[in-house]
Automatic annotation (TrEMBL):
Xref: Gene3D superfamilies: Outer membrane efflux proteins (OEP)
Localization (cell): Cell outer membrane
Leader peptide range in chain numbering: none
Family: Belongs to the outer membrane factor (OMF) (TC 1.B.17) family.
Organism encoding this protein: Sphingobacterium suaedae
Protein's name according to its UniProt entry: TolC family protein
Keywords, in A-Z order: Cell outer membrane, Membrane, Transmembrane, Transmembrane beta strand, Transport
Lineage: Bacteria, Pseudomonadati, Bacteroidota, Sphingobacteriia, Sphingobacteriales
Length: 450
């Protein structure tokens, strides 16, 4: 009975511990990118910028319509006053009440096409902000790929370090037995213990690196640090075959179409060109039309026929008025403000044109470097495979000699250290090659998957 109760308590504590963190069986690179795109706060911040620009565009379109306003007033005066509604001077100790209401509207009929050009400029700005969202997404996708492959690399390094530590512990056990029977020296035993300590340190270092890279990946995906999941490793053979033939011209021509930075540079040129038209609009005359309707009431007003005080609603009907105004304003000289504004707008266009050329040149340079890095990573991976295989053969050969007393402990553990380093280097080079290939996918706009 006590054993059953203890088992129940253990299971309860286990489920509570597991329930405290959300668990996923596996997360592929594609799923990691999708999760980041859905949750990341930087993307959401950029999307808010798009929404603000949409409102600015809506406001600029609304500026084409006439405005409309209504106003009403009511005032009281005691004693001497001039009543404008009745047109008389009021004396005495009486209260005078005045009321009025107005409805007015105005519109700019012509303003040098500035409002039209402003609408076009705001549309271009909206396109710029949309491409900014795409840029943020692209940069974050590359960050996810970097951290995902970094986590896989560090995970394999951790596994390799554990295997190496097990090998060293087994060697220490054998040397301890040989030492007990007098076949090994104190120096041999100390060397074996030192190797175990070194491998244990490698385990801690690689485990910390793995945990940090997983934490960075979770933060990009806006996940809790307690979330538990495993990563899916790529098929190295497929990756190598996929990028066997990669030319600069093909990648660069595709990148010019897909990279949002290039598209944004083109929009910036269009916006700068439109701003020139807006600045030139100040050279043109401005035509405004306005209209208004109003009426008034006075407590002192008299009916001109009966000389009796007019009723409230009768006055509002008789005292109504309508006005219409057309105004023309021709700019002659405004201290060269318009001239300077146009000159600045032209310089901004030249600057945007130069920025577009710089963006294109930087992309060309980056892609050339990316292709070079990919080819170099392939060669380094092949070289690291050979280095590991040869160092493994060397270790096994020296170990056989060491076991029969034909090699000393320094030779033995030097060979083991060389093999361990070669294995670590091979793991790093393998995933460096994968990463460089995915960078090419990033620039050509290809979905990044394994």
């Amino acid at each position: 009975m006590i054993r059953k109760l203890s088992s129940c308590i253990f299971l309860l504590l286990f489920f509570l511990a597991v329930g405290g963190s959300k668990s996923y069986a596996q997360i592929s690179l594609e799923r990691a990118i999708e999760t980041m795109l859905e949750r990341n706060l930087q993307i959401r911040q950029a999307q808010f910028g798009v929404r603000l620009t949409e409102q600015t565009l809506y406001q600029s379109k609304s500026e084409l319509y006439p405005n409309l306003s209504f106003g009403a007033s009511n005032s009281y005066n005691y004693g001497l006053t001039f009543d404008q509604t009745s047109g008389q001077l009021i004396r005495g100790n009486d209260w005078t009440s005045n009321a009025g209401a107005q409805l007015s509207s105005s519109v700019a009929v012509f303003q040098g096409f500035q409002k039209i050009n402003q609408i076009k400029a705001n549309k271009i700005q909206l396109s710029i902000d949309i491409t900014e969202v795409d840029k943020v997404k692209n940069d974050l996708v590359l960050s996810v790929v970097t951290n995902y492959l970094e986590a896989i690399t560090n995970g394999e390094l951790f596994e390799a370090a554990q295997q190496q530590a097990e090998l060293s512990k087994e060697q220490l056990r054998q040397d301890s037995i040989q030492f007990a029977v007098g076949n090994k020296t104190v120096a041999d035993l100390a060397q074996a213990e030192n190797q175990v300590a070194t491998d244990e340190l490698n385990i801690m270092t690689s485990e910390n690196a793995y945990q940090l890279s997983m934490l960075n990946l979770k933060q990009l995906m806006e996940m809790s640090p307690d979330t538990v999941f495993t990563l899916i490793k790529p098929n190295i053979a497929d990756v190598m075959a996929e990028y066997a033939v990669t030319s600069f011209d093909d990648v660069f021509s595709q990148a010019l179409i897909t990279q949002p930075g290039i598209e944004q540079a083109g929009y910036n040129k269009q916006l700068a060109l439109r701003n020139i038209d807006i600045a030139k609009g100040a050279y043109f005359p401005t035509i405004n039309v306005s209209a208004g309707y109003g009426t008034n009431y006075s407590s002192q007003a008299l009916n001109p026929l009966t000389q009796a005080k007019w009723a409230f609603f009768d006055q509002f009907n008789e005292n109504k008025s309508f006005r219409g105004t057309i105004s023309l304003e021709v700019p002659i000289f405004n201290n060269n403000r318009t001239k300077v504004a146009v000159s600045k707008a032209k310089i901004n266009y030249l600057q945007a044109e130069n920025d577009a050329a710089i963006t294109r040149r930087n992309l060309e340079k980056t892609i050339a470097q990316a292709i070079l890095d990919l080819r170099s990573a392939n060669k380094q991976y092949f070289a690291s495979q050979i280095a590991f295989n040869t160092s493994k053969v060397a270790y096994e050969t020296i170990k056989e000699r060491y076991d029969v007393g034909m090699a000393n402990s320094i030779e033995m553990f030097t060979a083991q250290t060389n093999m361990n380093k070669a294995e670590f280097d091979m793991i790093r080079r393998k995933y460096e090659m994968v990463f460089r290939g995915k960078v090419i996918d990033y620039y050509i706009g290809k979905p990044i998957t394994f």
